[in-house]
């Protein structure tokens, strides 16, 4: 192995650290739900600044396949019926909401906050996993108790997006 030249080693360590810097998170959701991808920065520390959300990992500058971005005056560009910045952007709340998520929304998203200075940008890569809700629908069960009194019970199980409701009805005795 070649000996390390002091300046080159420092440059290599600095560049490696800057290129690897960033936060990695995983956000999971179900088809049909709204999903919020986290991204925050301190406006008290950095003031208002330019930000972007894009698809794919954060590149060296800006965002790949930009979805939504803000300028230094916090004007939002690119919002659509699918993608929204719903937080208080004046307070550095840059979280992206995906409306009515589909399996096609799965993948990596990048939030980049431009901070003045060389290689100072705050980068957040969010891995999005959208799963099908396999338990949707209605199950109906009808039963009859035979004994001192005859009763009919109708049990309806409603299942939708991880919410489980069970309704039990007793049908009055019949002749």
From TrEMBL:
Keywords, alphabetical: Disulfide bond, Glycoprotein, Immunoglobulin domain, Membrane, Signal, Transmembrane, Transmembrane helix
Organism superkingdom: Eukaryota
Pfam families from the UniProt entry: V-set
UniProt-recorded Gene Ontology molecular function terms: phosphatidylserine binding
Localization terms from the record: Membrane
A GO CC term assigned to this protein in UniProt: membrane
Ig-like domain: residues covered: 32-127
GO BP terms in the entry: apoptotic cell clearance; cytoskeletal rearrangement involved in phagocytosis, engulfment
InterPro entries: Ig-like_dom, Ig-like_dom_sf, Ig-like_fold, Ig_sub, Ig_V-set
Membrane-topology annotation of the record: Single-pass type I membrane protein
Signal sequence region: 1-25
Family, as annotated: Belongs to the immunoglobulin superfamily. TIM family.
The name this protein goes by in its record: Ig-like domain-containing protein
